[in-house]
UniProtKB/TrEMBL annotation:
Region (Disordered): 1-21
Assigned keywords, A-Z: Cell membrane, Ion transport, Magnesium, Membrane, Transmembrane, Transmembrane helix, Transport
SUPFAM superfamilies in the cross-refs: CorA soluble domain-like, Magnesium transport protein CorA, transmembrane region
Provenance organism: Gandjariella thermophila
Membrane topology: Multi-pass membrane protein
GO molecular function, one term: magnesium ion transmembrane transporter activity
Family in the record: Belongs to the CorA metal ion transporter (MIT) (TC 1.A.35) family.
Main location: membrane
The protein, known as: Magnesium transport protein CorA
Compartment list: Cell membrane; Membrane
Function: Mediates influx of magnesium ions. Alternates between open and closed states. Activated by low cytoplasmic Mg(2+) levels. Inactive when cytoplasmic Mg(2+) levels are high.
Taxonomic lineage from the root: Bacteria, Bacillati, Actinomycetota, Actinomycetes, Pseudonocardiales
Transmembrane stretches, start-end: 304-323, 335-355
Catalytic activity: Mg(2+)(in) = Mg(2+)(out)
Length: 361
């Protein structure tokens, strides 16, 4: 009698096939590369390059540098680039995981800089928007003959920065540090643009808060304050790294480029002061909005109290004569009923006039 196949073996085979299907399909590095170029004496060499071909060409010539841009690579894909350019494993881990604070770190002969990117989310009115500021991240590895940029987010593209640099070969001829300056300048300029748009939104909210009899939603002011805090977290920590670059933190940044970083540092200080002012303005608006809401509530309570006092007169009279005792005064008067109605109406009218004079109604 032939042996029956093992059910356990069937289950094991099926499990192994399912595990194989669940294995991630490898994605080539080219899927994460936005652009890879070789620059010699400020000019881009023609042709398409892989990162290994590009760095080999630069080191064969003994001049120029490589600029490779990556968009949200995973750990496996970026490892090939890290091995080629000798990037430090801790910096590579930060570049893959993202969610880093702006910072500047030095690893042997490489600089690693993290910048936050921001984008203003267009909306009809700041009083109805759910999101105003969208953030992303840019990581820059700077070496003697290479620049590796890793970006996270869909709004942090560097295509325009690359084109502007390629249109100015003289500036690009200073080396890789010029690329770092252009990226930092681009990021800070975006901070200024977002700050201007937020300032317009705050002006709209301020006008609404101080407009008489306008509805005020304090929750929207809190939302705006949250967005400003997110902008602050992107800007404030960048001050120290930018100051280091202006003070000669690394020989990778020559003196000619440090002067450009000083200009970026001035712009950063300007936008930092503006954003700090936004926080104070929104705190004032919250206090004013809460005071206006409290005043409105007090007005409503006075109206309720006034009407309750007026309604209490007929309620009290009806309550007394609704007790149904046999020996109650004025029960048998011919004009007792209209007299009571008249007293009620006159009393209610007098109370109404008093409350109107006191602006309770």
């Amino acid at each position: 009698m032939p042996a029956l196949p093992s059910l356990g073996g069937r289950r094991g085979g099926r499990a192994s096939r399912e595990a194989a299907q669940r294995q991630r399909i490898p994605v080539p590095l080219s899927a994460y590369v936005v652009d890879c170029a070789v620059y010699v004496r400020g000019k881009r060499l023609p042709g398409r390059w892989t990162h290994t071909e590009a760095v080999d060409e630069v080191r064969r010539r003994g001049e120029g540098f490589v600029w490779i841009g990556l968009h949200e690579p995973d750990e496996e894909q970026i490892q090939g680039v890290a091995d080629t350019f000798g990037l430090h494993e801790l910096a590579v881990e930060d570049a893959v995981q993202a969610h880093q604070r702006p910072k500047l770190e030095r690893y042997d002969e490489t600089l690693f800089m993290v910048l936050k990117t921001v984008r203003y989310v267009a909306h009809e009115s700041p009083t109805t928007a759910n999101e105003i500021v969208e953030t992303g991240e840019l990581m820059v590895f700077l070496g003697r003959d290479f620049v590796v940029t890793v970006r996270h987010g869909n709004h942090s593209g560097l295509g325009m920065v690359r084109r502007q640099l390629e249109d100015d070969p003289e500036q690009l001829g200073y080396g890789p540090a010029t690329v770092l300056h252009a990226i930092a300048d681009h990021a800070v300029d975006s901070y200024l643009a977002v700050a201007e748009s937020i300032e317009d939104d705050i002006d709209v909210m301020e006008a609404q808060v101080f407009e008489p009899r306008s509805p005020v939603d304090a929750e929207q002011i809190y939302l705006m304050k949250r967005e400003v805090m997110e902008l602050r977290r992107a800007i404030m920590p960048l001050a120290t790294p930018m100051r280091r670059l202006t003070e000669g933190y690394s020989p990778l940044v020559p003196e000619q480029v440090r002067s450009y970083f000083r200009d970026v540092d001035d712009h950063l200080a300007t936008v930092t002061e503006r954003v700090a002012g936004f926080d104070e303005m929104l705190t004032t608006l919250i206090d004013a909005a809460l005071a206006k809401i409290s005043l409105q509530q007090n007005t409503d309570m006075r109206k309720i109290t006034a009407w309750a006092a007026i309604i209490s007169v007929p309620t009290m009279v009806a309550g007394i004569y609704g007790m149904n005792f046999e020996n109650m005064p004025e029960l048998h008067l011919k004009y007792g009923y209209p007299m009571v109605l008249g007293v009620i109406l006159v009393t209610c009218f007098v109370l109404y006039r008093i409350f109107r004079q006191k602006h309770w109604l």
